[in-house]
Amino acid sequence: MHRRLLLFTVLAAALLAPAGSAVASHGQTTSFEAPRDFLDPAMRETAFNDVASFGVHSIRLVMYWRDVAPSTKSRVKPAFDATDPSAYDWSRYQPVIDEAKARGWSVLLTLSGPVPRWATNGARDQVTRPSPNEFRMFVMAVAKHFGDAVTTYSIWNEPNHPDFLRPQYSSRHKPVSPKLYRNLYFAAVRGFGAVGSKTPVLFGETAPRGTGKAVAPLTFLRGVLCLNSHYRAAGRCKALPAAGYAHHAYTTRKGPFYRPPGPNDVTIGVLSRLTRALDRAARAGRIAERMPIWLTEFGIQSKPDPLMGVSLARQAEYQAISERIAYNNPRVVAFSQYLLRDDRPRPGPRIARYSGFESGLLTSAGKPKPAMQSFRLPLAAKRSGSRVSLWGLVRPAAGPTTAVIFVADRHKPFHKLRPVTTNARGYWRVSTGYRSGRRFRVEWTAPDGTVFRGPPIRAYR
To answer: Which residues of the chain are modeled with pLDDT < 70?
Structure first.
């Protein structure tokens, strides 16, 4: 997600389960994206160990084509075999993928612009009309070089945003980026096929909202699939082969409760819009039925961001509620946390100083936020009348385990409410009575005796 799109955005029902019952998992896995930490040799091992301590064994990595290609700023393509892996400099990304492979982790690699200048139509910049044929050859080189070290590929990061692909619109404000992306995606498919790669490929990776400069994700989806606003065929296009649809369901300061007025926007609170759109596209014959959804980039922006940030306590609450929404959507197969550490502050006034991302589990200086324990032990408390449905996850658990719920009524200390037993994937759900002002917390004792405590959580409606 690009911060600029988040700035444009400034200015959801869970079923009660019988008390004590664990929930049935539909297979949602957790991934982690931490470019600052993973790409820094001095921080890499610690970052991997931290992520492992949360119970996560899967990462997402975005590879920018311009970072590895030769003569990336040149307007003229150098003389080289673009399908030959030895012609590229993989040194920025190779150690991260090697570390993941050594640990037996899965890797989602997103191949994206910005691109070499010589690989664009007109060579004006590094994002305008990238050449599908050049991209095909690049994909061949990537697939040959990394082989089975990459578990899943995804094509382009936020192609509906102008920081990664241009133009987004024509001079008459008609979406242009969907067709550009479709050509790039099919070029990638041909590239993988040319080298015999069977690795699954995702499409989309869309930003959550449209603006005057960015195309709304569902508008973009229909354009890529040659569908009109009613999801009917708007041209002769063959079906798009993909293992799933990737999306970045970021929200605003209202968190998971925000419902964007634009019907073609998809934040976490209206995730069902994407499910319905994919189903309608499948009925039109453009994609496979019941296409899986991968939430490949997500986080809740916290203070000290003066525009988008919520309090540290609210970040922890919103994070868990958002994951519960994703979990309750049976089509979501992956949920990814964006950032371990917040971005470093930048020079300038406060707005410029915190113009990066503060969605991490640690501050930029490495101090844990409440979100860190919330990520390890997410807990969401949904009120319905006189009852509260508690949903949670013991993420580090390697199998069924027992956690303990604590409660604190207004102006009183926490006390034990009851133990809960998780399912094989660490999820649990129970129902309890509602009291105004009551807060909840979950504790879990790891096999080595370490006690982990989640942050206090309030009930929401």
So the answer is: 1-27
Structure tokens at 278: 């994919």
User: Using one digit for the tens of pLDDT, what is the confidence trace for 407-420?
Assistant: 999 999 999 999 99
pTM over 0.85: yes
Tens digits of per-residue pLDDT, 170-215?
999 999 999 999 999 999 999 999 999 999 999 999 999 999 999 9
Q: What are 439's two structure tokens?
A: 């807060």
The burial of 238, by beta-carbon neighbours within 10 Å (0-12 exposed, 13-18 middle, 19 or more buried), is given as exposed
Nearest C-alpha neighbor of 303 from the set 243, 245, 256, 371? 371
**34-297: CATH, from 1.10.3470, 3.20.20, 3.50.70, 3.30.450:** 3.20.20
Q: Do the Cβ atoms of 267 and 226 come closer than 8 Å?
A: no
377 touches 395 (CB < 8 A)? yes
Q: Cα–Cα distance between 326 and 331 in angstroms, integer?
A: 9
Two tokens, residue 386? 């006189």
- Of 213, 184, 177, whose CA–CA distance to 201 is shortest? 184
